[in-house]
């Protein structure tokens, strides 16, 4: 019941969700590396699909290599818990004019085990989760900046 009342209240104002399902005309430039490909694909899906270079906005992202840090050690000195962190720097342009830039980071902890296959799978899952976090953060900031520009 409370949800219905809230929806009715919001319907009467000019509230519009940032992610309303509309396609946003943003070209995401290719990002280096395998992780860059994954980040670009995730960003394109956030923006409603792939757009070409003639799009109204263009987004360039520089994704740094993952940084791994030990978080927990056994008494023998073996690592059992690690964290992978990704940093990305982005520039948003409209018709070759920079309208926003910034950086985002995302980190994910994972269990480091002695078995190579399991350790690699755990690491890869942590990297993918961090990529999706970065995609969410960057897309929210980009869409907010575009909303601000278009409302002026």
Please work out how many helical segments DSSP would assign: 3
What is the makeup of the main sheet?
5 strands, mixed
Name of the top-level CATH class: Alpha Beta
Taking the alpha carbons of the first and last residues, their distance comes to 37 Å
Structural class, by secondary structure, is alpha+beta
Number of strands: 5
Total domains: 1
The low-confidence parts are: 15-21
CATH-defined architecture: 2-Layer Sandwich
What sort of overall outline do the alpha carbons produce when their principal axes are compared? elongated
Helix content: 25-40%
Radius of gyration: 19 Å
User: Could you give the order of the helices and strands?
Assistant: HEHEEEEH
Strand content: 25-35%
Give your account of this protein's structure.
This protein is of the alpha+beta class. The chain has a single domain (about 20-150), classed as Double Stranded RNA Binding Domain. The protein is about 40% helix and about 30% strand. It is built from three helices and five strands. Strands 1, 2, 3, 4 and 5 form a five-stranded mixed beta sheet that branches. Helix 2 (about 35-45) links the parallel strand 1 and strand 2 (about 55-65). The protein is elongated and about 60 Å long.
Q: What layout of secondary structure does this protein have?
A:
Elements (H helix, E strand, L loop, with lengths): L1 H10 L14 E3 L4 H14 L10 E7 L3 E7 L5 E16 L2 E15 L4 H36 L1
Parallel strand pairs: 1-2
Antiparallel strand pairs: 2-4, 3-4, 4-5
Helix pairs in contact: 2-3
Question: What's the short story on this structure?
Answer:
The protein has 3 helices and 5 strands; from the N terminus they run αβαββββα.
